[in-house]
Amino acid sequence: MDRITHKLTFICSKLEALKIGLRPKIAIVIDDLGGENHTSQELLHWNLPLTFSILPLTSHSKTLALEAHRKGKEIILHLPMEPHGYPKIQPGEGVLLEEMDEERLLQQLSKDIEAIPYIKGVSNHMGSQLMEDPEKMRIILSELKRRGLFFLDSRTTPQTVGLQIAESIGLKAIERTLFLDHSSGEGDVKHELERLIEISLSQGKAIGIGHPHPSTIKSLKEMIPKIQEKGIDIVPLSDLME
To answer: Other CB atoms closer than 10 Å to residue 179's CB: what's the count?
Structure first.
């Protein structure tokens, strides 16, 4: 009589996983676009699938989104939300505020979404106050789900409820891994890019958020070949959504 005497379990090591095609991935999101045009124009011409995170209702927001779409770039709305310290700290036009009721929140959210054509998702700009409010975030994120958009939590507060609420309503969402230029010196940006590489290699994916600072752009130019030499694919943010 045949009997099962042994059970074998095969576990792929990181290197084996890479050999069979499970290449690590990095998404690079550039925040705060739309207010100026010089750096944005440079980024448009990079042969790289950067994700353009565009502020609503700014001088170049709509035209930049149209150009980015023509260039095949992924676009998300960088949604201004109330931070701790408001109104001394101003997130800009189109901000969602703690004091708004559901109707006003949805009205402003609709205006912000409609200000940026071709978006696939939304991330929070500032928002350390609002991102801690489960009731308000449920209203906002439910509307994103209704519209078929994903959400990137920028993690501007350790007490964010973004991912928790998104998961509870079945919204596709993810958190950034790190900010590339929290300190904007070139050496610091390169150090964060090195960290991003290591996290991607160990966890399979990573998301870096940068800003249109000269030091960030220069550091990315120098480091992108190194990222690719490590066998890491640079992908649009939506590729990392589960």
So the answer is: 17
Integer CA distances (angstroms), 14 to 23, 136, 206, in order:
9, 41, 16
CA–CA separation, 72 vs 52, rounded Å?
A: 11
pLDDT tens for 98-112 read 999 999 999 999 999
**Residue 83 clears pLDDT 70, i.e. is over it:** yes
CA 97/CA 222 separation, integer angstroms: 39
Taking the model in full, what pTM does it have? 0.90
Whether the Cβ atoms of residue 234 and residue 228 lie closer than 8 Å to each other: yes
Torsion of CA 174, 190, 61, 53, to 10 degrees: -10
Query: Which residue, among 22, 21, 114, 108, has the nearest Cα to 62 in the 3D structure?
Result: 114
SS3 of residue 166 by DSSP: helix
pLDDT tens for each residue of 135-191: 999 999 999 999 999 999 999 999 999 999 999 999 999 999 999 998 889 999 999
DSSP 8-class letter at 85: T
Domains of the chain and any CATH numbers: 34-240 (3.20.20.370)
Is residue 44 within 8 Å of 212, Cβ to Cβ? no
